[in-house]
Amino acid sequence: MALLILAALFLGCEADVCGFCEPNNAFRACASGLECVGNLCIRPGGNVEGECCDRGSATCSTDHYCVYRICETTPIYPPPKEETDFPGNPFLLGTGTRIITPESPQDTDETSALILQTQVEESLGLEISIEPYQAGMSLENVIVLGTDASNPAVGTLRGALGLEIPADGPTPSENYAFAVSPDQILVAAHESEGVLNGAQALKQLIRGESRKSPTGILGQKVVKDYPDVEMRGFTPHLLIYFNSQDNDGDGFKDPYKLMDVPVDLDVARAYFHAMSEFRYNTVVLALGDIVTWSALPQPENTAISVQEFLDLVREANRYGLEIIPFLTGSSSSNGWIGTVAQPVEYTPDYIAAYDAQNLITTKAVYQEIIDAIDPVQPVRYFHVGMDEDTKFGPRTLEQHEFWVDELYDLLSANGVKTMLWHDTWIKTDAYKYSYPAYPEMHILVWNYDTPVPITIRHIWINDIVSKGMEVSQSFLLNGEPADFQAWFATPSPLKKGFINVVWNQEGTFCKEEHYASVVNIHMRQNAHKCWNARTYP
To answer: Is the residue at 517 inside a domain?
Structure first.
């Protein structure tokens, strides 16, 4: 079953809001009669802020939970660039409706067909078939998916319907168009990833229209859409260490290692399904020691196997998502490298004694990760973190720069581009004077809500681009929004896009009360910002 994204449900809401009321407690929400679908709590037929309405779609029931009515505007989210309704006979989804895929479908083509088949069954209780294209087959009462090259029916119907696929934006391969006509629905794109984007939008339309009237009727419509930025990412944290305070009074954070919370593979898949629906295309997957890498002295006590991890990579790829492994080398947050007998400590003495060995271990794990993922999906980027390395960690700037050099050289030797959070590195001479030493680095610029004004952040961004290095901007749950006007004021293909980061512990939602969220409001809201960045208000 295709998983549905969590809709935020909260206690004590106001009757005139469309969004949420207080931080979500999904366990209470599920226990209060909401639907639990694939481990996710959902509001039957509900919406959140930005999905359909900006205001007015929420009311309060007597038990103070928000009750949401059906939006009358488009259910497609993020909102498409162009959406036009036409009068005339509608298309009727019925038991005889067939989904026509390319003759030799790619994994994403199969996913496109599956999510539509599943949505029709969930919304209308109808079982419709999936068939590959065959010459001479009828193209009536069908949903046709593909490109001109992959599915001959696409070219035939595009000509008959006059459907043009947009050529705008930085990645035309992701652009799509779909048309609903009385006899067929056509989802067309330049490449298979665009077909998946179009299928996800059509899935939302089917779901939304069935809530208004569960008859299977879809009015005549043309939708054309494309993303404004190339890289639209989210960082799922399937396990997060929580440091204790300085309980022993020595002036440093106490050491920590090991969690009793298992990594839930259903939650990981739920992330991927939701990200794909909202047309993200990048997963910066925080690994730590959640996988039993052989190079680790002691993996997390609840770690998944390498094979289970690779199955997650395949699942992400099927949903049109590129995996970027993320394993921080920062001394402020590299507790993953410790053991019970020798946990990481955040002191200069620990760095002096163990930093050299920890670098050897880190590089060995990096190499193992690349070697494992590459046969499944070529590794183009590896996020090494390195943030707050000298602010909350005990390394000196010189030690920080040495780690950057070593990790960059290792990744470059594998043909992999280093991703690095900028906040410590900009203090070093490497940033100020030695850009040529890192010609293939990708910098992620971020800040919390007060220290760095947006204008200063974009000076950094434009400076990085001027030196020939890639850059993306990170959204943080507790941080300022991006300044899209400044982002596009000096356009460059080296400005790749936006990565979303939310610092919260995750788990399986309708099972465990102590997990805050699985797929949260932050992902949904920022999907619109990333996809429609040029026009986002």
So the answer is: no
